[in-house]
């Protein structure tokens, strides 16, 4: 258990530290800060909050299974103050569980890990640590999880807010279920078994309202926790989850889509007039690459020492680039050869990155007609010297347009969801190369698989 716990902490670390470019804070004597380097007033999404509050399902007069006689489930054990992508994969699975249990899912704000919030957070002298900034879920995603409609004709109740749940589910109508009463029977269980068991528990509760609360015996008291999502046991859920309405109807938030649209001019191919124009849409000629640099090397050593597999949907057998932990090593240690093997994939060097991009482009172009790839979107935390060198080499290899996250122009509401903006561009790109251990990559891969992308289009270093 100790082994796993350390490993999982590394996994959490990995999931968190992705694209955010942590700049130094301007220190003032006596005051402590967390968050990023932006010093203005963060967006409060007032208009969106008002809209969320007035969703049509927030109406006690609606007939069963909504309204005051309706059935609801709130997962109060959902993870908070972690990276967005650790939260996202969990809330999608919880939505599907609510759906199978024939109850309305209760959506909640996203609570930031303070260190990764773009704006500076002042820690008050009387506080132990920074507060957790909150973003309404509808700023980040759309679809049934966030209160959007189900398929035409589907009688499932729509998701509701926490405030509405509190109104329609007074304490006497609530069945409070502690995860400690269920999870010990599910240790090392397959994903589909976990879904089935929780569906019985939540569906069969005699109360109209169910609230799942975090048990104290468990450091990771989530319904679908990191022990599941970081292991191949997750994969038995894929056939069920992939085609579920939660997954199919999961969509891009309008604020995110607007951020992508306003920057679309940056993606227009800039090269000399080609012999053939190729696809008209810039996204159809785009490769998006997720390259983690900087302190990430340290995290990769940790993953190697603890023999970590790929994360989440990156582990699916249908991918061309798979990673099998090599034999050898011992508890918390691995052989130098094995560590080198991990780094090749987790922290590839400059030349390996260039080569992988060439090979990936060749394979993708070769599997169709009239395919052109000349636009690159680079998702990276690398320093500008690295990016400069990389751009020069890419330009020399026919990539006429190279855009990075830092080139995007965003207003405050869009800046507050910039990780989702990057993910949306990576979703739309014809080809994506990601990091197999990353939850950010896994959630992009989920959307791309639902979109029906071919194997040559979904690659890992
Ligand atoms: C609430 O639902 C009832 C029953 O469907 C409907 O008559 C009423 O107009 C709804 N209220 C609002 C504010 O939409
Ligand atoms: C890693 O996993 C492989 C395959 O399951 C196993 O052979 C090896 O001993 C493990 N190494 C460590 C360091 O636990
Ligand atoms: C090649 O293209 C075909 C037709 O679009 C597709 O079915 C197949 O999956 C592709 N192969 C790979 C390895 O992506």
Provide tags for this entry.
461 residues; alpha/beta; Rossmann fold; 5-stranded parallel beta sheet; 17 helices; 13% strand; globular; binds 2-acetamido-2-deoxy-beta-D-glucopyranose
Note the topology:
Layout: H1 2-16, E1 32-35, H2 46-53, E2 72-75, H3 84-100, E3 104-107, E4 110-111, E5 120-123, E6 134-135, H4 137-140, E7 141-142, E8 160-161, H5 162-168, E9 174-178, H6 191-204, E10 209-213, H7 226-229, H8 238-242, H9 245-248, E11 251-252, H10 254-262, E12 286-291, H11 296-305, H12 336-346, H13 350-366, E13 375-380, H14 384-396, E14 401-404, H15 412-415, H16 418-428, E15 431-434, H17 439-450, E16 458-460
The structure holds 2-acetamido-2-deoxy-beta-D-glucopyranose (NAG) (3 copies).
Description:
With 461 residues, the protein is α/β, with parallel strands linked by helices. Helix content is 36%, strand content 13%. A 5-stranded parallel β-sheet has the order 8-3-2-10-9. The radius of gyration is 23 Å and the shape is globular. Bound molecules: 2-acetamido-2-deoxy-beta-D-glucopyranose (3 copies). One 2-acetamido-2-deoxy-beta-D-glucopyranose (NAG) is lined by residues 307, 325, 327-330, 334. Keywords: Membrane, Transmembrane, Transmembrane helix. The chain crosses the membrane at residues 6-22.
Amino- and carboxy-terminal Cα gap: 30 Å
Percent of residues in beta strands: 5-15%
The largest β sheet comes out as: 5 strands, parallel
Count the E strands: 16
| Alpha-beta content class | alpha/beta
* Subunit organisation of the chains: single chain
Tally the helices: 17
Low-pLDDT parts are 1-25
Number of domains: 2
Mean pLDDT: 93
Compute the CA-based radius of gyration.
23 Å
The proportion of residues forming helix, as a percent range, comes to: 25-40%
Strand order of the largest sheet: 8-3-2-10-9
* Distinct ligand kinds: 2-acetamido-2-deoxy-beta-D-glucopyranose
Q: Judging from the principal axes of the Cα atoms, what is the shape?
A: globular
């Amino acid at each position: 258990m100790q082994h796993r716990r350390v490993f999982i902490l590394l996994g959490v670390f990995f999931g968190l530290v992705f694209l955010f470019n942590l700049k130094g804070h301007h220190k003032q004597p006596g005051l402590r800060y967390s968050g990023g380097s932006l010093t203005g007033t963060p967006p409060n999404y007032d208009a969106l909050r008002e809209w969320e509050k007035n969703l049509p399902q927030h109406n006690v007069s609606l007939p069963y299974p909504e309204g005051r006689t309706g059935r609801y489930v709130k997962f109060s054990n959902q993870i908070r103050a972690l990276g967005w992508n650790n939260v996202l994969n969990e809330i999608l699975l919880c939505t599907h569980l609510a759906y199978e249990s024939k109850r309305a899912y209760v959506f909640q704000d996203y609570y930031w890990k303070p260190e990764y919030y773009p704006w500076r957070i002042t820690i008050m002298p009387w506080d132990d640590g920074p507060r957790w900034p909150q973003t309404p879920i509808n700023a980040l995603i759309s679809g049934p999880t966030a209160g959007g409609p189900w398929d035409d004709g589907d009688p499932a109740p729509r998701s509701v807010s926490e405030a509405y749940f509190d109104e329609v589910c007074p304490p006497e109508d609530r069945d409070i279920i502690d995860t400690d009463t269920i999870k010990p029977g599910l240790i090392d269980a397959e994903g589909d078994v976990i879904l089935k068991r929780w569906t019985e528990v939540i569906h069969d509760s005699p109360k109209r309202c169910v609230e799942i609360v975090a048990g104290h015996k468990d450091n990771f008291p989530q319904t679908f926790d990191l022990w599941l999502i970081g292991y191949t046991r997750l994969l038995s859920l894929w056939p069920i989850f992939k085609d579920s309405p939660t997954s199919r109807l999961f969509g891009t938030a309008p604020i995110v889509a607007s951020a992508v649209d306003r920057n679309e001019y940056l993606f227009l191919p800039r090269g000399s007039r080609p012999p053939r124009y190729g696809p008209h849409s810039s996204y159809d000629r785009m490769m998006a690459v997720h390259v983690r640099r900087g302190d990430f090397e340290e995290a990769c050593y940790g993953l190697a020492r603890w023999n970590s597999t790929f994360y989440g949907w990156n582990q699916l057998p249908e991918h061309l680039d798979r990673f099998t932990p090599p034999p050898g090593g011992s508890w918390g240690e691995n052989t130098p050869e094995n560590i080198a093997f991990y780094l090749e994939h987790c922290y590839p060097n400059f030349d390996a990155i260039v080569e992988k991009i060439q090979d990936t482009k060749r394979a993708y172009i070769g599997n169709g007609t009239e395919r052109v790839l000349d636009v690159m979107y680079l998702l990276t935390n690398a320093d500008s010297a690295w990016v400069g060198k990389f751009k020069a080499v890419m330009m020399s290899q026919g990539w006429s347009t190279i855009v990075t996250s830092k080139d995007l122009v965003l207003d405050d509401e869009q800046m507050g969801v910039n990780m989702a903006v990057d993910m949306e561009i990576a979703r739309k790109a014809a080809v994506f190369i990601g990091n197999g251990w990353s939850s950010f990559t896994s959630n992009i891969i989920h959307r791309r698989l639902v979109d029906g992308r071919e194997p040559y289009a979904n690659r890992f270093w």
